[in-house]
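Long-time lurker, first post. I've been practising inverse folding by hand and with some scripts of my own, and I keep getting stuck on stretches where the structure tokens seem ambiguous. Below is the full token string for one chain I'm working on. Before anyone asks, I'm not after the true native sequence, just a reasonable design that respects the backbone. If someone could post their per-position residues I'd love to compare against what I wrote down in my notebook.
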């Protein structure tokens, strides 16, 4: 009798333990929800390096929201991607894209009803414009100051700021203007240019954003 009671108690104890450790092992299968948070790596289709060893290559990603769609650009190729949910991405291939071949560390922003794209440059900064980036169609919109690792920031008051710099000696450069960059060249036409020493060590990859009514820069 005692052994039967003991076996019964053990059976109940095991059942309780299973229900505590796996409270919804069965019901959870029917009510399981898709995760709401995602992290790297995102499985994207992107190019291979042109040299050995064979490997994927992409760097310096930058993203912008335009007409409820996210557009993602990177270093090394004029191809880019777009997505409505940051999970499923569509590639705009190198053959389809009219952006310049092999851009480095580009910057993008939205001004009025178009996306503006500017890659790093040692000679002449070039702004490319598209009102339909899904199609791959772009046009040259303006020339600007040369600069490496550019960053674009479009403020709420309509003013646009371009920052660039990649040096442990030279300062950052800041170019600002209002409206589309249609007449900007060296900062004397259509915009104001200034140089700013922000730190004494090598600064690159700057990112400018607004928070609590002030502009912030990270590098």
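-- Answer (accepted) --
I ran through it position by position. Result:
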């Amino acid at each position: 009798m005692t052994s039967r009671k003991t076996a019964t108690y053990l059976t109940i104890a095991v059942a309780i333990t299973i229900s505590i450790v796996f409270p919804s092992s069965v019901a959870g299968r029917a009510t399981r929800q898709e995760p709401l948070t995602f992290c790297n790596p995102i499985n994207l289709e992107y190019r291979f390096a042109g040299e050995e060893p064979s490997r994927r290559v992409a760097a310096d990603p930058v993203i912008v929201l335009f007409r409820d769609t996210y557009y993602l650009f990177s270093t090394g190729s004029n191809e880019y991607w777009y997505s409505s949910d940051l999970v499923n991405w569509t590639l705009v291939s190198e053959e389809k894209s009219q952006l310049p071949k092999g851009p480095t560390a580009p910057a993008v922003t939205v001004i009025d009803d178009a996306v503006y794209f500017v890659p790093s440059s040692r000679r002449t900064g070039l702004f490319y414009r598209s009102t339909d980036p899904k199609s791959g169609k772009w046009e040259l919109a303006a020339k600007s100051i040369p600069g490496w690792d550019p960053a674009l920031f479009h403020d709420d008051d309509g003013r646009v700021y371009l920052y660039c710099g990649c040096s442990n000696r030279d300062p950052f450069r800041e170019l600002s203007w209002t409206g589309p960059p249609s007449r900007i060249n060296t900062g004397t036409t259509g915009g104001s240019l200034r140089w700013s020493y922000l730190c004494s060590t090598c600064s690159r990859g700057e990112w400018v954003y607004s928070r609590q009514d002030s502009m912030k820069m990270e590098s």
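A couple of notes from the structure itself: The chain is about 10% helix and 30% strand. The two ends are 76 Å apart (CA to CA). Happy to go over any region you disagree with.
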